[in-house]
Every structure is written in structure tokens, then in C-alpha cells.
């Protein structure tokens, strides 16, 4: 569904992306691991239409979208901070995209209540954003994004501001919801375990160069990702601690 070909971008004399290419089939989640400054946010902004590449192409369903304005790409970009409408309650935040598309009231009610159930928010539908926890606000942001069925969902370290326990819960929730809705998504993170949890496909971005892997085994085997070292560390901790 998504084809990225030879994307190049630099700011001034500094190269950010270098001949970056990959394909992402519909219904798959590409987890891209990368450290700060590797170019992952620039990549997402180009896909969303918020930045223009110096060269290369981005195609969705075979058609180039580089000349398509952001609001017509059917792409949703989620950040670390869930940007909810503070004057709308949970139900209306999620319903917003349907209402501006003039969906019938009964259908809005049906779809939003189903989404609330999937996100385990049915008991929060009347609350305002300032009455929610960080994890709950992020769930509402997901619901608002998914309810309009975007062609592509872009996630820029969306759980980075959450505590460890909430972050783990959100990772599992994302994986379940992504499977349920057959989401096509690009999820960038600097956390190896998060990448392994949320992804169905895997990539490593370093200094603007993207490596994709045919399998999770190949992703783990690449020493640059640090996955093997982290797995070995936790195995060591478990073997040494009588509490584990």
C-alpha cells in the first residue's frame, strides 16, 4: 500500500535522509527503531505532507502523494502529546472526525461506542480531557484517529511521556487494536522492546539510512539494534534475582 522510493532530505549542509526506500503492505505495522537525531521524525513529516523531500517519491496504492495536500492524504500523525480538544468530552473528541464528514447521528453513536469499547473507555465517555490520565488521553487520541479509517497512521514515539507500567499497557493495547482494525502504520521508537511488541515488520534508521529486515530474527541479529544485548541483560537479571 505504501511505497517510499529514494527519499533524500537535508537541512542546509546537513543530510537527514539518504536514498531512503521501503514498502509497507496494507494491514502491517512497520516498527522503526532509531536513536535521537536519526531522521525518523523528518521521515514521518514527509509522509504526512508536513515536509517536502529534496528528491524521491511517496506512493500510496500506486499513486504519488507528494503533490497532495496533507488534509487529503488520509494520513494521521500522532505525537507523544495527545492533542485533544479541551472543550469536548471523550465521546465528542472521538466523534469529531465523523461529525465533520456529516455521518448520520445514529451511525456516529454506533461507531463511537464500539471504538470506546475497543479502547476500554466506555466508562469515561462523558469526561473532559483534563479529567483523564495520560494513558487514557492517548487512547482517546487513538480513537479519534482510527474512527475515520485513515489509509496510514504515523506514530512518533507516542508513549514516550508515559510511565513504564502505563507504557507497557498501551503497547499491548495498540497491538490488539491494530490487529482488530487491520491498521497500516509506521511506528517510530528508540525503545527496542517497544519495537518488538508493536511491530509486524521492522526497520532500523541510522543517520538517515533505513535498513528493513525480512524477519524478526534478522532484526534481532543485527548488532546495531541492541536487541540481543537487551534480551541477554534481562535473562541475566532473572537468573541472578531470587525474586524473579
Automatic annotation (TrEMBL):
Entry GO MF terms: ABC-type ferric iron transporter activity; ATP binding; ATP hydrolysis activity
Domain ABC transporter: 2-232
Keyword Coiled coil: no
Pfam families xrefs: ABC_tran
GO terms under cellular component: membrane
Key words, A-Z: ATP-binding, Cell membrane, Ion transport, Iron, Iron transport, Membrane, Nucleotide-binding, Transport
Alphabetical GO biological process terms: quaternary ammonium group transport
PROSITE patterns named among the record's database cross-references: ABC_TRANSPORTER_1, ABC_TRANSPORTER_2
Protein known as: ABC transporter ATP-binding protein
Organism name: Spirosoma taeanense
